[in-house]
Design a protein that fits this description.
CATH topology of the largest domain: Rossmann fold
Order of helices and strands: EEEEEHHEHEHEHEHEEEHEE
Number of domains: 2
CATH architecture of the largest domain: 3-Layer(aba) Sandwich
CATH class of the largest domain: Alpha Beta
Structural class: alpha/beta
Shape: globular
Distance between the termini: 36 Å
Strand order of the largest sheet: 1-13-14-10-9-6-7-8
Number of helices: 7
Number of strands: 14
CATH superfamily of the largest domain: Vaccinia Virus protein VP39
Radius of gyration: 19 Å
Helix content: 25-40%
Strand content: 15-25%
């Protein structure tokens, strides 16, 4: 049975993958003989992440200020780590599936089989998708959800992903004339030439984006007025870095979405469809472009 437990938002407010990785909290420090490493903790408020691009130098140590605990220590500081989008440059389908759907108390294979049709049900319940719909799948990966929706609805899907390898795999996986895959920059070019989509989805993606406010703004520009956006995401961030597999920089994705869109419905997947390690740290929501 499909149970998403939706609840309407209190009012209309507003003006891009692997799922909910446990251990993507803020940080503690451990010395293991190879130097200090950042390890995830249970999201203590006293730790923050400063995410750097690979070609950026970290700030001087004097700029890494203590975050304000009465018992100040060297572990309670802003940590500088390096953004690593290469984690998504997979070489084949199996590697893609493992990074798109981490186990989280289940297995990628089990999640792929059960979560995919469940998500398609949820998206169809939130968005009016027909054969005439042009849908953006933002952070499409290899086209898992796009393929399911095309098979069900006959819609047209533009898959957007930062990874060229994922985009190539998506074309091979979806194998439909109603699907194309492009980079975010290509989507920007299309929008600059007056393209807009009817609706969009972003599934397990915004938690990983380096600058999610920019990705959300891109989604806003890409939709028709009144266009719907379906988001499934971690409550906490999970940004891929070189120093630590996933880290949390403290950004609030739901608040960033509300800055651009009106949230009309929210909830979380039913427990029987959620891996044990994700049950308390995820949300879904439907948003509308109202300006």
């Amino acid at each position: 049975m499909f149970l998403w437990c939706p609840r309407p938002s209190a009012g209309l407010e507003g003006a891009g993958r692997s799922s909910g990785n446990r251990g993507c909290g803020q940080f503690t420090k451990q010395t293991d003989g190879k130097g200090d490493r950042l390890l995830s903790a249970d999201f203590p408020d006293s730790h923050q992440a400063l995410i750097l691009m690979p070609d950026q130098a970290p700030p001087a140590s004097a700029d890494l200020q203590d975050t304000g605990s009465p018992a100040a220590s060297t572990e309670r500081k802003i940590r500088s780590v390096t953004y690593n989008p290469a984690i998504f440059d997979v070489g084949n389908f199996e590697e893609a599936r493992r990074i798109i759907l981490t186990g989280e108390g289940s297995t990628p294979d089990e999640r792929w089989k059960s979560e995919t049709p469940y998500l398609a049900d949820a998206i169809q319940g939130a968005l009016e998708i027909t054969a005439d719909t042009v849908l953006i799948d933002y952070g499409c990966g290899i086209g898992r959800v796009a393929k399911e929706l095309i098979q069900r609805c006959g819609c047209r899907v533009i898959g957007v992903d930062i990874s060229n390898n994922m985009r190539i795999l998506a074309l091979n996986y979806v194998q439909s004339s109603r699907f194309l895959a492009c980079s975010p920059e290509m989507l920007d070019m299309l929008v600059a030439r007056n393209f807009v989509a009817d609706a969009a989805i972003s599934v397990w993606v915004l938690q990983h984006c380096l600058k999610p406010a920019e990705d959300i703004a891109r989604l806003h520009r890409s939709l028709v007025p009144g266009g719907g956006l379906f988001v499934l995401n971690n409550i906490h961030r999970a940004v891929p870095t070189k120093e630590q597999f996933w880290v949390n920089d403290g950004l609030d994705i739901k608040s960033l979405l509300r800055d651009r869109f009106s949230m009309v419905m929210e909830g979380k997947p039913s427990e029987d469809q959620t891996p044990p390690d994700l049950r308390d740290i995820i949300f879904w929501a439907k948003f509308l472009k109202t300006d």
